[in-house]
Every structure is written in structure tokens, then in C-alpha cells.
Specification:
The complex is a heterodimer of chains A (349) and B (543).
Chain A (H helix, E strand, L loop, with lengths): L1 E4 L5 H25 L4 H13 L2 H26 L7 H16 L7 H30 L3 H21 L34 H18 L1 H11 L1 H7 L3 H28 L10 H11 L4 H25 L5 H21 E4 L2
Chain B lengths: L36 E12 L2 E12 L3 E5 L6 H8 L7 E6 L2 E2 L5 H6 L2 E4 L11 H6 L12 H15 L14 H14 L4 E5 L7 H16 L3 E6 L2 H7 L2 E6 L2 E7 L5 H9 L16 E10 L7 E9 L3 E5 L6 H8 L7 E6 L2 E2 L5 H7 L1 E4 L3 H5 L6 H5 L10 E2 L2 E2 L1 H15 L14 H13 L5 E5 L7 H17 L2 E5 L3 H7 L2 E6 L2 E2 L3 E2 L5 H8 L15
Parallel strand pairs in B: 3-8, 3-9, 6-7, 7-8, 13-20, 13-21, 16-19, 19-20
Antiparallel strand pairs in B: 1-2, 1-4, 4-5, 9-10, 11-12, 11-14, 14-15, 17-18, 21-22, 21-23
Helix pairs in contact in B: 13-14, 14-15
Chain lengths: 349, 543
């Protein structure tokens, strides 16, 4: 068996490959479902029902997908430039801190100005958090995988410190949480009687915007060139450091926006558990999407659906909800394998 | 080599006869049709995704001969050899070695049958010793003890027998390219091969090393071995081969005995048409475009250069010769804007310019053609249009307020593809282009900006005759337009036929540039190994 690179990759194949990977992942994971003593058909039916089977289920999936779109975009943009930002989680919390600082009474503007201000301040905080490791990378060749990863723990502990200390809301009956976001800064619910808030609109708009930037602007061109061929980009005179730093600000800013949607949308106030690892899952989202900004939306919906669905499947069938992690991981592995099929043609002999 | 002298379409009036007499086979006792057939290829065909790489090839190799397989890049030489050596399975056809059919698709079977291969890119473990590399893979996995002494004895015997002197305990990474090639050959001989396939073996060698290789090959055929020598260099093929088979577009288009072959016929058979020789014009040099005075640079991990003086004028091509690794790459990187000099003075178009940086150089009218066209010349995973605007996307004609003007880009791309004849659709990824087309793409990008100074590093390395001729044509055109050209090349034939003056780099220093009329192959070869030009003392005014 031999692999031959394809000259062009047909669009249908690019779209079909991840779907096949998902189907194969579900098939493989059915072994675990059987092992747990449940019927496969029944379990997956419960999973799908829990993900998209009702208005409520769908709204929950969309609510969960919202921060994942932002963290997925953050990873996709950075990885395009071969900037390995593993610090989405930390940047998310940096954004959450920024909106809490700005949005709990320090500033009060009418809503149409307040919400953009919150997003902007969060993006600035997230961008700055990634800016430092990026400078260390461009100027001192410090591996950004290590620095961005470790900053996640620094940020989390810092949030803990603030929530148990100076930022603790005295009205919260002793719970470690910050004061609520002022009314003008809250992202409004867009479907009544659900938690689904306007953050989703911002997330989808961001995905569209990033797609436009990557495809049609000079900056996007530079990011793609640096990521795909740093030697050629340098020789051609594309500013490497400026491009990587610009990418870092964008990526960190996007991840921080996930903090905004959680604090100002889903929760309404900052706690230390606003993110069950959205920053890390964002990496899986980006990989699943093949780093394509619009694909990120689809991948975020899929992963959010799997997690939501697995929660209700676990309640209905008494199967551990960790199955969601297994399904996501298997899908990701298979999507990476299918990438091989997409890029190469398999031939016998 | 009767018949080849004087009938040389590739060289201009100033080119000396390329193969020095020592390159000619000394051995005339083995007439081309001497031994029995040891290898027979019948009707081998191989297709890759719509491309016919091999089309019904018939071939036979006799005992004690050097059979040369000549053809342009993409003619199917390497595919055929990969089929012979079992890397590929042919779609149809049979191979017989020593009278027995050879199993397809198994290098082990090929080795078993006595066929060895030396690849163009070596397959050596650079961190292992010569002996380790030779022995690697010949011993059963389950045996704990190695017979080092026996292996050493055999290696020494082979080295002696074939004149392949090499230190068995040297680390391969520390050897020169020529020595590494000797190790590759020893590796094959150690496996008792009777047929040795050499794929473009001279691509990385100096003229002197090439001669040595040819002497080794002659030793081998005297011992009754057979050699298949793959090349696209006519002079070498004529110097070493007993028989020459020419491939074009996957098919055999001609077979010649050495006596019957000359450069003209071979070149025409290879390309399928007459190849026009580059027509050198005499042009009066214009003002100095680039001047270096006492320039030194010592980049980490690369060859340092020092005391470099040079001046190139408009309408002039200055060739830089030298054995690879003598500082040419450092010079090219320096002038390409990838590093700054430690000392010395650089004047561009008569003026001091600040730090040399790629974007600034491009803006000032310097066109740069990089040595490594795959990794540095193009972004392989971007498509043709993206690669064509890589150096000019910042200009107002291609972007406004940060938005790329796709329509302007598309028009530009269509014009360039037409004018420079780049074969490949607009959506094609650059990496899937052939070497020649990648170089055309780079030329299109660089020359369409009408640069006043061109820094071309190894612009024809690895290109076939047709593509190389195209590159020269384009350089001449640029020169006629008034460009000054610095041409760094390891191909002396190219330099002698294209450059107006040639300077030699040796251990980081650059000789004065000598008018090409005062130089020949032997002279250059000597200068490349550190001797001064013989007339240097009396012709100090040649600068």
C-alpha cells in the first residue's frame, strides 16, 4: 500500500472525511457502551436526544458551544501561524477577570456600548497574557508550549486568590464568587426560558470575521505564509515577529472572549469553575475543524452536543458520562487519521 | 570519445571541452557488447495519477559494462530504477536478473538477486561509524554478537579492491560528501551486489571527486560488475558510459554505443528538440550596482566569509564558483538579506544602505533567487497565486486598507503564468509542481519586478537541460535590460558559458573576478582547491 499526495483536495472529501470519522468513532465506542451493559442503539438514541432532541437540549448544546467557538478560534488562529498556544484556559480566565474588574460597577455605560467595552477589555487582557510568552518565543526562543501551559495554572490560582480574598462578593453568603456583572453588561438571553444568550451571536460573528481576515486580508496572508513556510516567508520579507505577535494578540483575545460569554452570559458573575476546561477543549475543536474558522463552529457544536448528550445518556442509562471524553478523543484521533486520507491518495502497490 | 569533440551544441565559443582527458575511460578492452546479459527489463510500465512515468520500457544490461540512463528530470529514470530496486511495483512488465525473474516490490529480493542502489540522497546514519553503516541490516536481528573483525576485514578488502579508501571508524557525519558516497557504494558492495545502480551520483561532487568516482566505476566493471549510471549531464555520460539509453516522457527514445553518441544527438534525443545554446552578447558594463569591500560575516553554524571584495556592474553577470561549503551560501544569505555583515562596506547602486533586509532589498530593486527553492523559494502548501505575490502583496496594487485585491492579484497571476510559462493550474499547490516549474514560478515572481540587481544562488541546480536553458535565457534578458547579476553556481560548465567574469570562493575568501576568456575548466578546478590564478601576478589589472 502506498500514499501519493493529492495535487488538489476536493471539497466534498474535505467535508465528508470528518463525518466518516465521527461515524467510525461512534462505532468503536459502542464497544464501551456494550461493556457498560447498555444497548448501543438505546444509548446513542439517548445521547442524540440529550444533545439536540428538544428545544431545551438544543439550547443547552448551543450555550455550551459558545465558549468553545471562541477557544476553538483562538487555537485555530494560533496554530495556523505555528504558534502553539496551549494557554486558552488561562486567557479565558484573564478575560473573565477583566470583565469582572470593568463590569461590576467600575464603569456603567448603556448596553450597546457596555458589551463591546467588556469584550474589548477582555480581549486586551487575553492578548496581553499571550503576548508575554510570545515575546519570550520570538526573542529568546523559549518554547511557548511550556510557558502558555504553565500560565494556565498561574491564572487559575490567581482567580482563586481573588475570589477567596479581595474580590469575594460579600452578598454571596460566603461562596467564592465575585460581584455580579452590572445589568447593562449582561449578554441578553436570546431564546426565552433557556440559558442561551447573545454570546452565541458574537461567537458566530467572530468565526465569520476570522474567516474573512484569514482569507482576504494581508494579515491573514502573512499568518498563513508564516505558518506554512517560515523559511520562504522570511526570505520573501514577511515580518515574522510582527506576524507572530499579531497572531498572539488575536488568539489570546479570542480565548478571552470565551471568559466574557461565561461571566456575562451563562453565569452572570465570576467563579473559579466557569470553565470546565473550555480552553483545552478548544484545541480539540480547532484540530477537529482542520483549523478552519467556519469549521470551528461546526466542531464546537459537535463537541458540545456530545458532552451534553452524554450527560443525559449517563442519567438515562447509568453509563458514566466520561464516555463523552472517550467519544471526543476517538473522533479527534480518527479525524487526524482521515486527514491523511484527505491529503493522500491510497494506492495498492 | 570520438565524435563528441567540436560538435557541442551546449557550449558557446568560450567553453572549453568539458571532459578533461582523464575522465575518458582508460579501459578499451571491454567492447560494449562483451558480457552476457545480467539484467533484462521487458515492457515495464508505471502510471501515477494520470501521469505515465514509465511506458513499456525495454532494457538490457550486460556483464562488465556501464549503462547510462540519460534523461531530463521527470523522464522516468528514477521511477524505473525504483522499480528495479523494488521500491515500486510496475503496472506491467517483467524484470529478469541473471536469468531468473525478479519479485516485484521488494528491495530485499533485489539485493538477494545482486542488485544494489546508491540513491541521490544518501541513506546513511550520520551518527554511526562507517563500519556500522556498512554492516547495518546485514546481520540477523536475533544474534547478540557481531562479527566485527570479519566485517572489518571484508570492508578493508573491498575498499582496497575498488580503490574506495575510507576510514572504517570515522563517524559518517564527519565525512565529506564524496566520502559519504564511497560509503554508500561500499555498503552495496558489502552485500555482494553484481549490479550497481547509481542515481545522479555526481550531483554533489567536485570535478576531482567525480573523476575518482569514475575510476571506481571502471574498477568495478573490470571485476565483472555491471553499473547503471543515471544522469542528466551529457559530459559525464559520454565520459563514463559504454552504452547510453535515452529516456523521454517515460519511454526509451534512443540507444547509443559510446562511439556513436555525441552531445548534439543526445541533447536532442533527451529534450525532443534542438536546444538553443545560450547566446552570450557582449554588452558594455554600466555603473556599479553592487560593491562589497572587506566584508566579513561569521553566522553561527555556517561557513564564515572574510575580506570579500567584489563589484558588479549593470549589464554584467559575475559568476561565483567554488566547491560547496566554501562560503557561497553565507554570501548568498548576506546579499539576500538574511543576515548582516560583521565588518566591511556594502554599497548598493552607489549608496550606503542600512541593514540588508529582504523586504527592503526587494523595494530597492534587488531580485533574489534562493538556493533552496523548495523550502525557501516557495511556500509549498500555498497555491500558485499566493506564491507569486509573496514579495509584493504589500504594494497598493495588491492590497487596500489591509484587504487583498483578489481581482488585481488574479490578473497579475494570469499574466505571469502566461509570460513565464508556469505549468500548473491556479489552484495548484506549489509543492506539487515539478522542479523546473517551481523555478519558473520563482523567476516569474522575481523578474516581473524588473530588478536592477539579481542575486541568483544555484538557479539551475537539479533542473533539466530545457529548464536550465530557460533560466539562462531569462537571466540574459534581464542583463540586456540592464540588470547586474551575481550568479552563484557549482556547475562550472554553466559559469563558463553564462558569466562574463568569474570569481572563486575558497575557504570563505573570494578571488578577484577574472574575465571568462582567461579561464578554463582546469584553471577553475585548481582555483577551487585554493591555488591562485596562474596569471594573477601579471594581470593584476584584470579587476
Amino acid at each position: 500500500m502506498r500514499f501519493e499526495p493529492r495535487e488538489r483536495i476536493p471539497h466534498w472529501l474535505r467535508l465528508l472525511a470528518p463525518l466518516l470519522a465521527i461515524a467510525a468513532a461512534l462505532a468503536i465506542c459502542s464497544v464501551l457502551v456494550l461493556w457498560a451493559g447498555a444497548g448501543v442503539g438505546e444509548a446513542y438514541r439517548a445521547l442524540i436526544k440529550g444533545a439536540v432532541g428538544s428545544r431545551f437540549a438544543l439550547s443547552e448544546t448551543l450555550t455550551r458551544a459558545t465558549p468553545l467557538i471562541f477557544t476553538g478560534l483562538a487555537a485555530a488562529v494560533a496554530f495556523r501561524a505555528k504558534l502553539w498556544n496551549i494557554g486558552g484556559e488561562g486567557q479565558l480566565y484573564a478575560g473573565a477577570l477583566a470583565v469582572t474588574w470593568v463590569g461590576t460597577g467600575a464603569v456603567a455605560l448603556p448596553s450597546p456600548a457596555m458589551v463591546p467595552l467588556l469584550f474589548a477589555s477582555a480581549a486586551l487582557a487575553g492578548g496581553l497574557l499571550l503576548f508575554v510568552p510570545t515575546l519570550l518565543k520570538t526573542h529568546l526562543r523559549v518554547d511557548e508550549v511550556v510557558t502558555t501551559l504553565l500560565l494556565n495554572f498561574v491564572m487559575l490560582l490567581f482567580v482563586d486568590y481573588l475570589l477567596f480574598g479581595p474580590w469575594k462578593d460579600p452578598m454571596a453568603l460566603g461562596w467564592p464568587q465575585a460581584a455580579p456583572i452590572v445589568e447593562q453588561g449582561v449578554l441578553p438571553v436570546i431564546v426565552p426560558k433557556t440559558r442561551l444568550h447573545a454570546g452565541l451571536v458574537f461567537a458566530v460573528a467572530a468565526a465569520l470575521g476570522i474567516w474573512l481576515v484569514m482569507r482576504f486580508t494581508r494579515w491573514g496572508f502573512e499568518i498563513r505564509a508564516v505558518g506554512l513556510g517560515v523559511g520562504a516567508a522570511r526570505f520573501a520579507g514577511i515580518p515574522l515577529n510582527a506576524t507572530v505577535i499579531r497572531t498572539a494578540l488575536l488568539s489570546g483575545g479570542l480565548a478571552a472572549c470565551a471568559g466574557v460569554t461565561e461571566v456575562c452570559g451563562t453565569k452572570g458573575y465570576l467563579t473559579a469553575d466557569i470553565s470546565p476546561g473550555f480552553g483545552y477543549t478548544g484545541i480539540a475543536v480547532a484540530m477537529l475543524a482542520g483549523l478552519h474558522p467556519l469549521g470551528v463552529v461546526a466542531a464546537a457544536l459537535f463537541i458540545a452536543g456530545i458532552y451534553n448528550g452524554a450527560d443525559s445518556m449517563s442519567r438515562a442509562m447509568s453509563i458514566s458520562s466520561y464516555l463523552a471524553d472517550v467519544i471526543t478523543a476517538t473522533t479527534l484521533l480518527l479525524v487526524l487519521v482521515s486527514g491523511l486520507v484527505v491529503q493522500f491518495r491510497i494506492r495498492r502497490g | 570519445m570520438p565524435g563528441s569533440e567540436g560538435a557541442d551544441p551546449m557550449s558557446t565559443s568560450s567553453t572549453p571541452d568539458p571532459p578533461p582527458s582523464s575522465l575518458q575511460p582508460s579501459d578499451s578492452s571491454a567492447p560494449p557488447s562483451a558480457g552476457e546479459v545480467v539484467l533484462r527489463v521487458r515492457g515495464v510500465s508505471k502510471r501515477f495519477a494520470g501521469l505515465v512515468a514509465n511506458d513499456g520500457i525495454d532494457l538490457s544490461l550486460r556483464r562488465g559494462e556501464v549503462l547510462s540512463l540519460l534523461g531530463e528530470n521527470g523522464a522516468g529514470k528514477t521511477t524505473l530504477m525504483n522499480i528495479l530496486f523494488g521500491h515500486y511495483v510496475p503496472d506491467s512488465g517483467t524484470i529478469e536478473a541473471f536469468g531468473t525473474p525478479l519479485a516485484h516490490g521488494s528491495p530485499a529480493a533485489a539485493l538477494e538477486a545482486g542488485i544494489g542502489m546508491v540513491h541521490q540522497h544518501f541513506t546513511l546514519g550520520t551518527n554511526l561509524s562507517v563500519l556500522d553503516n556498512v554492516v547495518l541490516g546485514t546481520e540477523p536481528l536475533w544474534r547478540l554478537r557481531q562479527d566485527r573483525r570479519g566485517a572489518r576485514r571484508k570492508l578493508a578488502r573491498l575498499a582496497d579492491e575498488f580503490g574506495l579508501a575510507v576510514d572504517a571508524d570515522a563517524r559518517v557525519g564527519a565525512l565529506s560528501v564524496g566520502e559519504q558516497q564511497r560509503v554508500e557504494i561500499l555498503k552495496a558492495l558489502y552485500r555482494d551486489v553484481r549490479i550497481l545502480i547509481l542515481d545522479e551520483p555526481t550531483a554533489v561532487l567536485t570535478p576531482q571527486e567525480t573523476e575518482r568516482l569514475f575510476a571506481t566505476l571502471r574498477h568495478m566493471i573490470e571485476q565483472g560488475l555491471s553499473v547503471i549510471f543515471i544522469s542528466h549531464k551529457l559530459a559525464e555520460v559520454l565520459a563514463v558510459a559504454d552504452r547510453i539509453v535515452v529516456l523521454r516522457q517515460g519511454a526509451v527514445v534512443g540507444e547509443y554505443g559510446r562511439a556513436a553518441a555525441d552531445r548534439e544527438t543526445l541533447a536532442a534525443a533527451m529534450v525532443g528538440r534542438e536546444v538553443p545554446a545560450p547566446k552570450r552578447q557582449r554588452l558594455a558594463p554600466g555603473p556599479v550596482a553592487l560593491a562589497l569591500a572587506d566584508v566579513a560575516a561569521a553566522p553561527p553554524g555556517a561557513v564564515a566569509i572574510r575580506d570579500v571584495d567584489l563589484a558588479i556592474r549593470a549589464h554584467e553577470i559575475l559568476g561565483i564558483a567554488g566547491v560547496s561549503g566554501n562560503g557561497q551560501r553565507t554570501l548568498a544569505d548576506l546579499l539576500g538579506g538574511l543576515m548582516q555583515p560583521d565588518a566591511g562596506e556594502i554599497r548598493l547602486f552607489g549608496e550606503h544602505v542600512g541593514p540588508l533586509e529582504p523586504a527592503r532589498l526587494t523595494a530597492l530593486g534587488v531580485g533574489r533567487i534562493p538556493e533552496d527553492r523548495h523550502a525557501v523559494g516557495i511556500v509549498g502548501d500555498m497555491d500558485l497565486p499566493d506564491n507569486l505575490i509573496l514579495e509584493s502583496y504589500r504594494e497598493p496594487r495588491f492590497q487596500r486598507y489591509g484587504w487583498l485585491r483578489r481581482r488585481a492579484v488574479a490578473g497579475h497571476v494570469r499574466r505571469l503564468i502566461g509570460r513565464f510559462d508556469v505549468r500548473g493550474g491556479e489552484g495548484t499547490l506549489a509543492r506539487s509542481l515539478s522542479g523546473g516549474n517551481i523555478q519558473k514560478l520563482i523567476l516569474a515572481r522575481v523578474l516581473s519586478r524588473e530588478p536592477r540587481l539579481i542575486i541568483a544562488a544555484q538557479p539551475t541546480r537539479g533542473l533539466d537541460v530545457g529548464a536550465a536553458a530557460y533560466v539562462h535565457e531569462q537571466l540574459f534578458e534581464a542583463r540586456a535590460r540592464g540588470a547586474a547579476i551575481l550568479l552563484i553556481s557549482e556547475d562550472l560548465e554553466e559559469l563558463l558559458s553564462v558569466a562574463d567574469r568569474i570569481a572563486v570562493m575558497y575557504r570563505g575568501r573570494l578571488s578577484p573576478g577574472w574575465p571568462v576568456e582567461e579561464l578554463d575548466m582546469t584553471e577553475l578546478g585548481l582555483m577551487m582547491s585554493g591555488h591562485s590564478h596562474s596569471t594573477e601576478t601579471e594581470a593584476g589589472n584584470a579587476l
